[in-house]
Amino acid sequence: MEVVVNAATSVDGKLSTHERRQVRISGDADFDRVDRLRASADAVLVGVGTVLTDDPHLGVKSEDRRVERLRNGRPASPARVVADSRARTPSDATLLNDDAETYLLVSAAAPEDRLATLRDVGATVIEAGEERVDLPAALDALEAEGVERLLAEGGGELIYSLFSSGLVDELSVFVGSLVVGGRDAPTLADGEGFVADFPTLDLRSVERLDDGVVLTYRTE
Ligand SMILES: NC(=O)C1=CN([C@@H]2O[C@H](COP(=O)(O)OP(=O)(O)OC[C@H]3O[C@@H](n4cnc5c(N)ncnc54)[C@H](OP(=O)(O)O)[C@@H]3O)[C@@H](O)[C@H]2O)C=CC1
Ligand SMILES: Nc1nc(O)c(N)c(N[C@@H]2O[C@H](COP(=O)(O)O)[C@@H](O)[C@H]2O)n1
Asked: Where is the Bacterial bifunctional deaminase-reductase C-terminal domain (predicted)?
């Protein structure tokens, strides 16, 4: 499976405010680039932190791209995937609507009643890990479901875990021209942080877009 991570950060590396309030960092051209990435993916992954704060849709927005996918025998939008160890995704979350399939990656610690509720509203549950989602095992299970290209859109906890498990193939970051600040604001990679064996990246392109730049890396 090819795993592509995409996010937008301020110049000081923040994904959102210290209150975890979503910030419009990308401009129209960058949102269109993200839409192209979504259209090229079989599934889009976020952590449950992003679902709880942003209630994202994660679908392809361009009608032309949805039509093109259908013409190629694919669903109009990629599947939505949430890393959600304890099944905290609200049953009325937007990404559980009928626009695309939705997978919840949970751990053995997820309460049965929550799983039943979420299955009732259409989610497909994949269990991997005891206390927290075991991402390598969960991604293997997704691959068995036909997901060959996975776009991970954040947030910082999830992106850190993907790097720490060596699962990232490509990273693109839009760096917008604003400073968000705040020592507690989410950054591109949070988690516990690396103290050695830092993942190193190979910078492949630098593109000026909107009022910022898109940096694209492959992992080594
Ligand atoms: N600017 C941008 O491009 C983007 C910004 N954001 C912003 O990021 C913020 C949310 O980020 P953040 O709080 O880091 O939350 P995340 O979206 O990264 O979700 C983190 C949660 O995912 C669950 N999870 C399950 N398994 C794992 C695992 N193996 N590794 C890591 N997490 C796992 C955990 O909850 P549990 O243990 O309960 O399962 C964890 O707390 C929001 O403010 C949002 O607006 C988000 C996306 C893009
Ligand atoms: N790429 C990007 N640029 C920004 O400026 C952003 N604020 C975000 N945020 C993330 O985009 C997702 C919303 O998706 P939908 O529009 O609801 O489909 C969500 O994950 C945000 O955190 N991304």
From this structure: 3-215
Is the domain covering 2-219 a CATH 3.40.50.300 domain?
no
| pTM exceeds cut of 0.90 | yes
Which residue matches tokens 């875990």?
161
Q: Which residues contact 53 (CB under 8 A, 6 or more apart)?
A: 16, 20, 21, 22
CA of 110 to the centre of ligand 2 (A): 27
Closest by CA position to 47, among listed 213, 148, 159: 159
User: Model ipTM?
Assistant: 0.98
Query: Ligand 1: which atom is nearest the Cα of residue 135?
Result: 29
Cβ distance 179 to 9 under 8 Å? no
User: Which tokens belong to 1?
Assistant: 């499976």
Structure-token match 């940096």, residue found: 215
Task: Name the amino acid, one letter, at 176.
Answer: G
Cα 134–Cα 135–Cα 141 angle in degrees, nearest 5 = 95
The rounded distance, in Å, linking the Cα atoms of 213 and 220 is: 22
User: pLDDT by residue (tens digit) across 138-154?
Assistant: 999 999 999 999 999 99
In the reported structure, the alpha carbon of residue 156 is separated from the centroid of ligand 1 by a whole-number distance in angstroms of: 6
